[in-house]
Amino acid sequence: MNIQITKTDKSRISEVDFDNLEFGKMFSDHMIDMEFKDGKWGAPEIKPYEKISFHPSMHALHYGQSVFEGMKAYYVDDETVNLFRLDDHHERISNSSRRMCIPEMDKEAFISSIKELIKLDHKWVPKTAGHSLYLRPFVFASQEYIAARAASEYRFIAITSPVAAYYKEGFNPVSLTTSENFVRAVKGGTGEAKAAGNYGGSFLPAQQAQEAGYTQIIWLDAKEHKYVEEVGTMNIFFLIGDTLVTPKLGGTVLPGITRRSVIALAKEWGVNVEERRISIDEVFEADASGDLKEVFGSGTAAVISPVGLIHHEGKNVTLDQENIGPFAKKMYDEITGIQYGKIEDRHGWTYPVKVK
Ligand code: COI
Description:
The chain is an alpha+beta fold. It has two domains: 4-164 and 349-354, Aminotransferase class 4, branched-chain amino acid transferase, N-terminal domain (D-amino Acid Aminotransferase, Chain A, domain 1); 174-324, D-amino Acid Aminotransferase, subunit A, domain 2 (D-amino Acid Aminotransferase, Chain A, domain 2). 23% of the residues lie in helices and 30% in strands. It contains eight helices and 19 strands. A hairpin with a 2-residue loop joins strand 17 and strand 18. The longest helix is centred in the N-terminal third of the chain and has 14 residues, at 86-99. The mean pLDDT is 96. Bound molecules: 2-OXO-4-methylpentanoic acid (COI). 2-OXO-4-methylpentanoic acid binds at residues 70, 199, 233, 299-302. Residues 70, 199, 233, 299-302 line the site of 2-OXO-4-methylpentanoic acid.
């Protein structure tokens, strides 16, 4: 694949305090840029991270025709950086694009340009255990056009940001609350797409949850307001007895790539995994009977995040507030072990990038 590369003449890496990283605040020296025009995608270009200019009439600003991915690059050693399940991320951004009427991009262009970007900015990949270089590929309608229909010009950009844990709690249990007044997704809507607007719409309820002292919202289904779907920025798992239960996909739940990995690993360990509807009442009943052993979230940014408390209509399910449960810890160690190249990748999930 022919990728034009223009390097920066002034790296900003000395400005980064790698010991105090805040999620999504600092961005590496380079970015990918690719344009869709006249009915086709051009070639990807890698260039210095810079401001982009656009007209006030740029379509995505008005109608939110925009999708994104979240991925990470992991330091293995001075010669290798691992990417994780890149093909799945390409598949998901293609599915999200189709739903948002955005032209899909070629898999080879996506994968090769991301590998090149990582090669070029590999010094930005933090070396501390648990830290990584977060990648944010996104596509948006870039046309100067405000008719309310799909645009005909788009831009694919990928930027990267060195990160530590996503939640301020780090690896400590987070607290969740249901929302009485808001819903995230309805069947037939855009809930299973990683569409920008899905997240924008969740900020007000999330802010209210935080004001009330919780970390995030645990979303219930929009129709019956009964079944658990997902958390603000992650999928959710319940260990009930010896069974791992997670809400099934089906239009309203984001098909998480970490979720998929958790299910595959748990099955490999011989754990019974159920992808099904699970009501919030069932969670409270499992807690009351002593069967609810652990609750944790999964996501690229969140990795595996233990849940210490779930609040719903004035009642709480209280789990271990101090420690991560043994199952979630084992899952965290296994997934991050594979990602950081410490545990053999038996599934072909990692994409090692030789950086030297
Ligand atoms: C991710 O986990 O990568 C996400 O996309 C969550 C993000 C909204 C912070």
